[in-house]
Specification:
The structure holds 2 protein chains of 2 kinds. Chain A contains 5 helices and 17 strands. In chain A, strands 5, 6, 7, 8, 9, 10, 11, 12, 13, 14 and 15 form an 11-stranded antiparallel beta sheet that branches. The longest helix of chain A has 15 residues. Chain A is globular and about 65 Å long. In chain B, a hairpin with a 4-residue loop joins strand 1 and strand 2. Chain B is extended, with a radius of gyration of 16 Å. The chains are: A alpha+beta, B alpha+beta. The interface between A and B is large, with 82 and 71 residues.
């Protein structure tokens, strides 16, 4: 993509990346931003890891552009000088893009190669221990559900991000399994201080709703600090519930530079409905966890 | 050089900006590889996204500083425009 831009920007083509909701949360530890400021932080991170010269735009937090583009993860449009669509594709394809632009504005004599651009290739790495807290094995066919942080109640960044998923039974019938995960946002360079105390959560369970583990505490960890998610599985019977469920979370936020370690209480509303802009970490026809979430082989 | 190129493409793919080695004719307007059956995502995309010859809806998003950007304004400048959707992962 970068090479296409280098070659075709001088020939009258403008290029834009439009930043959207994460397609694969948790990969490389990245988690979903809760506000526009954090989405713009993601763009800065993308600039750092990609070294791109293409102009970045960001979808609004209402995801209006993602809706226009049918909630696809990596789709692409080419527009003519009057702003009319001339090419549209579900998946960005730099090879096809170059071919299209050759047809529209002409070929370049000496196409730029990736090696000519000296692009960076290293993502941010956690500064503290990882892999010390076992991951929860998720049931199959879970889907992201809507999580609304109470942004008005705090000026403190959401150093810890909630990821919530529900199984089909919970989504369709109101009774089933919920995944609740507390994930450190790597863009804030923070860690769990296991000496200060674990994460705690508490659901305000509405009348008529039953929920196992409606309150919970993170595990005791011998490592003084780590960056692993804290995860829980809950059995929920909320049949007939039409409202979100309130969740309060308490944790100590401690930065990797050891300049602060502060107690944080933050609130959310969890909606037992699918987040159409959210994604799960599972992929593929076998619905297996991807990228390190699979259990180790036995035998 | 080949290994670095391969690792760069793999990394870019992992970041959600995928380089798929499938060519297609300009204006064909379909996202799948030549000869492939459309997926549910392809079908939904073709049903919802502005079609060939259509303008974008009159909506605004933001630039990388949070300033409003009108999609029609930036795509009717007398130049071709490529818009690619993506994210870190």
């Amino acid at each position: 993509m970068e090479t296409v831009k280098v070659d075709y920007a001088p020939k009258g083509v403008d290029f834009y990346y439009i930043y959207k909701p994460l397609a694969h949360p948790e990969f490389n530890n990245y988690v979903v931003p809760v506000n526009l400021e954090e989405r713009l932080m993601h763009i800065e991170e993308a600039k750092r890891v990609l070294g791109s010269s293409i102009t970045w735009l960001a979808d609004t937090m209402d995801n209006v552009w993602h809706d226009v583009m049918a909630n696809t993860p990596n789709s692409e449009l080419i527009l003519d000088p009057e702003g009319r669509v001339v090419v549209r594709r579900t998946w960005s394809d730099p090879v096809a893009l170059r071919h299209d632009l050759e047809g529209l504005v002409g070929a370049v004599d000496h196409p730029t190669a990736i090696a000519d651009l000296h692009l960076p290739a290293q993502p941010r790495m956690p500064a503290v221990a990882k892999g010390v807290v076992p991951r929860v094995e998720l049931p199959p066919n879970m889907a992201s559900i809507q999580v609304d942080p109470d942004l008005e109640s705090t000026d403190i960044p959401f150093y810890v991000k909630i990821r919530a998923e529900a199984d089909p039974a919970l989504l369709q019938n109101g009774a089933g399994t919920m995944y609740l995960g507390f994930h450190l946002d790597p863009l804030y360079s923070v860690h769990w201080n296991n000496e200060a105390g674990p994460v705690r959560y508490n659901f305000s369970v509405p009348d008529g709703v039953t929920m196992t583990n409606s309150s919970g505490v993170g595990p005791d960890v011998e490592e003084p600090a780590d960056a692993d998610p804290r995860e829980f599985l809950l059995q929920v019977d909320a049949t007939g519930l039409q409202e979100p469920i309130d969740l309060e979370v308490f944790y100590f936020a401690c930065d990797d530079a050891l300049t602060f370690c502060i107690p944080v209480t933050q609130n959310y509303q969890i909606h037992l409905e699918r987040d159409n802009h959210g994604r799960t970490i599972r992929t593929g026809a076998d619905n297996q966890p991807m990228l390190g979430r699979r259990p180790p082989p036995t035998g | 050089m080949i290994r670095r190129l391969s690792s760069l493409i793999t990394f870019a793919a992992a970041l959600g900006f995928v380089a798929v080695a499938s060519a297609q004719a300009p204006g064909m307007g379909m996202g799948m590889a030549a000869g492939g059956a459309p997926t549910a995502m392809d079908t939904r995309f073709m049903d919802i996204v502005p079609g060939i010859g259509e303008q974008l809806p009159d909506i605004s998003i933001v630039d990388d500083h949070g300033n409003p950007v009108n999609m029609r304004d930036i795509t009717t400048t007398g130049r071709y425009t490529v818009l690619t959707l993506g994210c870190l992962t």
